Amino acid sequence: METTKFEIRGPAFATCNCAWGCPCQFNALPTTGRCEALWAMRIDKGNFNGVRLDGLVWGTLFSWPGAVHEGNGKVQLFLEEQASADQRQALETIGAGQVSAEGTFFQIFAAMAPHLQPSVTAAIDFDCDIEAGKAHLKVRDLVEAEGTPIRNKITGIESRSRVVLPGGFEYREAEYISGDTLTLDKAAIKLDLKESHAHVYYAAWDNDGVIAV
User: Fold this and answer.
1) Structural domain includes residue 154
2) What is the rounded average pLDDT of the residues 148-172?
3) How far apart (Å, rounded) are the C-alpha atoms in residues 15 and 178?
4) Which domain does 54 fall in, by range?
5) Which is nearest to 67 in space by CA: 36, 38, 40?
6) Which of 166, 167, 174, 188 lies 20 to 30 Å (CA to CA) from residue 26?
7) Where are the alpha helices (DSSP H) in the chain?
8) What single Pfam family name could you report for this chain, choosing any that match (predicted)?
9) What is the tens place of the pLDDT at every residue in 172-188?
10) Per the domain annotation, does 29 fall within a domain?
């Protein structure tokens, strides 16, 4: 059977409930023993088996009772309300890990978060400036999040961190920042995070995982 092909590229923003730096990024356990997270991306260039995805913003809310690798998590997908039925189906299929190789970003998170909550389509305001270490996300009635550079608690000076993971399944390089995240009425997963870990990066994936950029 012919494999459904996809490729998506664009800036991405993620927050979680870990302290700055997120030990999970280095195969350690989460700061609080459990994981809560937000992930969002603007697809500057994307295609799913002939369906164009350019310009769409989408993302997910996640929650696990323990570490991600222990599974039993919940996930709620969101995407822009102007997405067509074909585009929505494409993003839901990608997000569910159905067309990704084992051990890649979407396949891992789908396998570890089997409890699917209803997808949400809404107006989305998203900006992600990787070089500045800043991001903004507002999904109407669902979630609001801000990302800013980490600052020294004594001097107030920005403390910039660029992390390289040569074998990373989410990214090869990311700017680590500070995030604030608050979910709203339509969120099936509740997050209320202040000055927690966040990162921004240029995402590039296909069926086989991260694409070198």
Assistant:
1) yes
2) 95
3) 8
4) 6-210
5) 36
6) 188
7) 85-95, 105-112
8) DUF1326
9) 999 999 999 999 999 99
10) yes
CB 213 within 8 A of CB 202: yes
Q: Is residue 125 included in any domain, yes or no?
A: yes
C-beta of residue 10 within 8 angstroms of C-beta of residue 41: yes
Token pair in block for residue 119: 């997808």
* Other Cβ atoms closer than 10 A to 71: 14
Nearest by Cα to 114 from 95, 87, 139: 95
Average pLDDT for the chain: 96
Q: Are strands 115-116 and 74-80 parallel, antiparallel or unpaired?
A: parallel
CA–CA distance, 146 with 46 (Å, rounded to integer): 25
Percent of the chain past pLDDT 70, that is, above it, reads 99
Strand partners, 112: none
- Stretch 69-76: mean pLDDT: 97
Distance CA 186, CA 143 (A): 8
The DSSP bridge pattern shows strands 143-148 and 173-183 to be antiparallel
How many domains is the chain partitioned into structurally? 1
Does the reported pTM lie above 0.85? Answer: yes
